[in-house]
Structures are given as C-alpha cells and as structure tokens.
Batch of 2 targets.
Target 1
Amino acid sequence: MSLFNLAVLISGSGTNLQAVIDAVSDGRLPNTKIALVVSSRSGAYGIERAKKHGIANIVVDRSNVDKLPEILRFHNIKGIILAGYLTILPPDVVSAYEGKIINIHPALLPKFGGKGFYGIKVHQAVIESGDKQSGATAHIVDCGIDTGPTLVQGILSVQNKDTAESLQKKVLEVEHIVLVEAIRALVKGEIDILINNPKTIRMDKGDL
Ligand code: GRF
C-alpha cells in the first residue's frame, strides 16, 4: 500500500511539524509520509527541522505561490497540513485538495478565528474575553479563513493567573495532540466521520 504523502506548510518554529514528524516515526501515524515542508518564510526554524529529518523543503511565499500546485503535484501530495502558514492558499489549490487540507488553529473555533486572529493575538482576545475555556481546533480548510468544518477540538481551562503567553504555551501542546488526531482520520479516509461527529478531547487535570 503506498504511503499517504503529506505536505506540511509552516511559517515559524515548526513545533506542530515536529509533532507530526514524531507521530510518524513512533507509529502513531501509520502509512503516512511527510513528503514536503513548505515555508512562507526563509528563516523559519521549521525548515531546520525538515532538513534534520531529511524532508524535502521549499520556501513558497506570495512571490511564487502560483508555483504551489506544480510543486505539490511533483511530490505526489495527497493531503496538506497548514501549521502556521501565513500566505493565503490559491483557490485552485483549495479546490484541487478539497476535503484534504487541515488547518490547526489555537482557539475553540468558531470563536476567536478569522481575519487578524493569529499568533498571540488569539490568546490576548481569549484572556480579554474572560472565557474560562480555550484550546485548539483542527478543521478542514475551505475558501474562508478558519471557517471550514471542525474535525477535532482539544479543550482546556483558562486559569485566573493565565496570561496570553502562558495560555499560548498550554494551547500549543494541545494543538500537537489535536493535529495528529485529525491527520490520522485524513490518512484513514475518515474525515467525513469527524465532520459529522467532531471529536472533543478534554485536556485538563494534569494531562498536559
Ligand atoms: C500555532 O500556534 C498554530 O496554531 C498557528 O501557527 C502556530 C504555528 O506554531 N496556526 P509552530 O510553528 O507549529 O510552532
């Protein structure tokens, strides 16, 4: 059986990429290969992670994003993981990979998502809102921003002492768990099962 080739699209430190690399190597993601890492920034540490694991890697930003479809075809990509990628995907990529593009967002969508909600801004908004829960959402990418159907959510409690920074740190660990769960369903062809019945994982009580 041929492996399910993933492209992981990043722009920063690549801890979500590392979580997927680790899950592939320790068997939690069978039949899966990270065939390509695409960064929207040349200085992203995630590129170093790819190099360390012998994974093909390339910088694709606004200036050459029109080349993305050809690059994905060349690497026989079957699924795309957005892990912080900061360039909007061309509509022809979204339609060519419909139902096979997963994004990881550091909040409980649909709250605190959409234009302008990325990075520390998300957690600042959660803290300012006074919400007592936050977490991470893995969802299918559609033509909107953070608007595709939810697949998996990891939920944790926001403590009174939490700051945007401390919340970001806790949520990032949840992202790693949630993302691997969603990718497992993608590789097994079970995305529709999750779309119809999204998985929720409680992450409190020392799970982290
Ligand atoms: C994560 O917070 C993710 O939710 C967001 O971008 C960040 C990527 O972090 N989409 P990393 O590069 O995977 O560490």
Note: The longest strand covers residues 32-39.
Target 2
Amino acid sequence: MLCLGIESTAHTFGVGFVRSRNGAYDILGGHKEMYVPPKGSGIHPREAAAHHADVCDEVLQTALAKAGVRLEDVNVIAFSQGPGLPPCLRVGATFARALAARLDVPLAGVNHCIAHIEVGKLTTGVRDPLIVYVSGGNTQIIAYAEGRYRIFGETEDIAIGNALDTFARAAGLQEPGGPKIEALAKNGHYVELPYVVKGMDLSFTGLITEATKRLKRGASLEDICFSLQETCFAMLTEVTERALAHTGKRDVLLTGGVAANGRLAEMLDTMCRERGARSYVVDRTYAGDNGTMIAYAGLLAHEAGALLMPQQSKIIQLWRTDDVECGWLSTAQEQH
Ligand code: ATP
Ligand code: FE2
C-alpha cells in the first residue's frame, strides 16, 4: 500500500511517500519547501499559507520524481490535520481532499506530533521509548501507556525551538535560529543564565529575556549561544532523567526539529549511559517537518482501520498529543 503524506502545519510545505508491504515499511522520501519570514520577524500565518498554496503543485511533482512513484499508484492520502496555524493547515487539508477526490482514494488525518514520534521510532528501530519531542511549537516528554501517548513533562510557556528562534531574531540572526545558535555555540564559554525547572515542567521565557539583556549589554554572542544551549538542554535532560526513573523505560528517543542539535543529543546520551539506558535520535532528514512522517503515521492509522470521511477532515488547530485516540497505535506498537 502506497501512502502520500502532506505536511503544512507551519513554515514547511512537504509531500512524502511511504510504502508498506507485508508489515514492513519503506520510506521513499519526498520534497519540501520552507517559508522564510523577512529578517527580524517571526512567521506570519497568512503569508506562510500563501507560500504553501504557491508551491504545492511544484512540491508534489518534485516529490513524485524524487520518490520514484506515480500519482496513480497512491492508495491513501494522509495530511497533517493539526495542531498548527489554521491558514497553513487549511492549505494542506484542501490539497489532500482535492487529491483524494481526484484519485478516488481515502483520506487519513494525522496528528503532527504523533508523526514526529512515529518517524523517530521507524528510523531508529526503537520500540517503546521515553520520547523527548522538541520543536518550534512543542516541548514534551512523552511515554506510551494504555493506548495513548501520555505527557510526563512539558513547557509552561514557549517551546524550546521557539525560544531559540526568538533569541536568534533579537541577535539579528536569520530564521531558523536553532542551527545558527548551534554553530556559534561551538566557540563560546559559559555564563550563568536562569535555570527554570518546576517539578516536571520547564519554562524558557525568563531565560531568553535574560540572554537577550546580556547580549545588549555587550556579552559575546558566542558565549550567550553556548550558555543558552547548555542551560536549556540541561533543563530538558534533568526532566528526562526523572521521567526515565518514573516510567521505568530503558530507551530515550529524541525527535522533532530541535533533535537535529548535536549537543542536545550528546547530553541526553551521556545521561542515558550513566543510567544504563540507551538513547536514539530520529534520522536527521526527518527531524524537521516533512511529508514523509505524515505518510507513515497516516499509513499506520489507515491500516489499523481508522477511517476519515471528507466531512470529518476539518483542521484541528489545538490537538494535544495526549488527546489523540490511538487505539490503532497499540496495534502498531505490538507489530513493531
Ligand atoms: P511542531 O509543530 O512540531 O512544533 P515546528 O513547526 O516547530 O513543528 P520543526 O521543523 O519540527 O517545526 O522544528 C523547527 C524548529 O527546530 C525551529 O525552532 C528550529 O530553530 C529548530 N532547529 C532546527 N535545527 C536545529 C538545530 N540544529 N539546533 C537547534 N534547533 C534546531
Ligand atoms: Fe514539527
């Protein structure tokens, strides 16, 4: 069975393909284009949506060519149904409905966060990990229990990727800020910044305000980038370690856009080794938003019999990971 996945929750419009055969899944890949806001400003939802509408046909054609498949061979169309920016989500949902009607194939509505988790599991082979999901819109420590992904810790304010991007903008760096901060941090030294862990939850806004203040007062950009990473990542590692102890899981999976950060992967790996646990990182190609992860999660849901009628395909702007009914996941969990 061949699934076409469409991603359009925020800055990225992506199309990707996954094929299943006798219970095995082949990632065929795809293509994506990213909306980059003007320097100094954050993402503007309507402009990002206009970008997605402009590039969708071209992205589809390039994705088909890269994956080496024909549109006529697609059996199911999956799309990011939420959470995300409504104007962006609507472009993806409309494109999905049009393709499904044209090909006369069913739709699968995918929770974007679950797709980040599932593609992490597929690309690493890990079965039942504690999940550290870090991206521009989310920061959650998650574990699967009794038919649902449960959240053990999360941010109380902004997500870690958003925090890094906000600081990067204040420092005059081009979006996305995470990779720029990672590169600059390589030459930095530690200065103390606020470390805010509250029980199992985290807070990043005070840290970003203080880092920005220090920079304006003349601290070196490299030092602040280094310290920002060390502080945010140590906070995350602390909560992850406690969640490991609490859940008794033996594996940790790092996934989401910020999973591309080598220093974060290293810190989590050190903590895991000290506890006799193992750490895994999603394949870098599928760390940031992409259509392939949507295709995979959609295929799992579809194969488990989750039917989505066109009238149920409205976008879901706010759709928490632990709100997703995933009876289908327990089946998938057992099979893998
Ligand atoms: P979600 O809806 O899952 O929150 P998203 O819209 O944030 O998705 P992703 O592509 O999952 O999109 O994540 C993007 C984030 O990842 C951005 O904040 C970006 O700065 C961050 N990022 C990308 N590469 C790195 C890196 N090397 N180090 C740190 N952060 C990174
Ligand atoms: Fe994402």
Note: The mean pLDDT is 95.
